[in-house]
From TrEMBL:
Keywords (A to Z) from UniProt: ATP-binding, Nucleotide-binding, Transport
Highest classification ranks of the organism: Bacteria, Bacillati, Actinomycetota, Actinomycetes, Micrococcales
UniProt name for this protein: ABC transporter ATP-binding protein
SUPFAM superfamilies (UniProt xref): P-loop containing nucleoside triphosphate hydrolases
Domain ABC transporter: 28-256
Pfam families, A to Z: ABC_tran
Gene3D superfamilies registered for this protein in UniProt: P-loop containing nucleotide triphosphate hydrolases (3.40.50.300)
CDD domains, sorted: ABC_NrtD_SsuB_transporters (cd03293)
Length: 277
């Protein structure tokens, strides 16, 4: 009944046990994780989930609505605890946060300007102020926000707000970047644009990323591997390696191989789309 984050130097992160290790190896292990939400009725969200997250991989997770994808991501982030099982994470640095998370709803503070919102990612870093400011500006420029650092969220479009949220997560240089359907609320054109920007910024840099999405196209384009989940209570029904090399051209979407893989994943989801509880 623990959410553990594993390490070789045992430390505690909230309710998570953290450990230290090195090499391209397993970065995180999700071990026999189940989750039941208890209220007037008991709602089983996850059922005996077993999975690995490898160091430096971009892992995407797909599954029917309500299958527990976001619950699983929040467990990796330490925001929720499993009812049974454990999440074990290998911590390799004392200078970087273990995780940073980007949510679907932007999660930016309306009373802070863009610069200050992004700076929150370094609030606990202990870096000297000039270094913090320098790093913030690097990520503002990389996400095309440099001209808007003094703007407030009410002045920005949805796409720009999500860029702010992504910059805030990346400025901290987390060991694992967690993204919970970050483009779901955007229109198709903007979503595509941000997919391509993320592909360039994160997808080719060897960062460890866990990305939840409903879009099979997005999962294939961005990911090194796709975990496919069943309907509630969510289980991992398959792990599919993406056979396309990096750096990845967004035009890959048009290839027959891409479309064949998308169809394969769709048939898999369709087979497991009915809730069992």
């Amino acid at each position: 009944m623990t959410t553990a984050h594993t390490n070789t130097m045992h430390t505690e992160v909230g309710s998570l046990e953290v450990t230290d290790s090195s090499a391209r190896q397993i970065k995180a292990t999700i071990r026999d994780v189940s989750k039941v939400y208890r209220g007037r009725t008991q709602v089983p969200a996850l059922d005996n989930v077993d999975a690995h997250i490898y160091d430096g991989e971009f892992l995407t997770i797909v599954g029917p609505s309500g299958c527990g994808k976001s619950t699983l991501l929040r467990m990796i982030n330490g925001l929720q605890r499993p009812s049974e099982g454990a999440v074990e994470i290998s911590k390799s640095s004392t200078d970087r946060p273990l995780t940073s998370m980007v949510f679907q709803d932007y999660s930016v503070y309306p009373w802070m300007n863009v610069f200050d919102n992004v700076s929150l990612g370094l609030a606990r870093s202990g870096l000297p102020k000039p270094e913090k400011h320098s790093r913030v500006r690097v990520w503002l420029d990389r996400l095309d926000l440099g001209k808007f650092e003094s703007a407030y969220p009410s002045e920005l479009s949805g796409g720009m707000l999500q860029r702010v949220a992504i910059a805030r997560a990346l400025v901290a240089e987390p060991e694992i970047l967690l993204m919970d359907e970050p483009f779901a609320a955007l229109d198709a054109q903007l979503r595509r644009r941000l997919q391509e920007e993320l592909l360039e910024i994160v997808g080719d840099a060897g960062r460890t990323v866990v990305f939840v999405t409903h879009s099979l196209e997005e999962a294939i384009l961005l990911g090194d591997r796709v975990l496919v989940m069943s309907a509630r209570p969510g289980r991992i029904v398959d792990s599919v390696d993406i056979p396309f090399d990096r750096p990845r051209d967004p035009e890959l979407r048009k290839s027959p191989e891409f479309r064949d893989l998308e169809e394969r994943l769709w048939l898999m989801l369709k087979e497991h789309a009915t809730a069992t509880a």
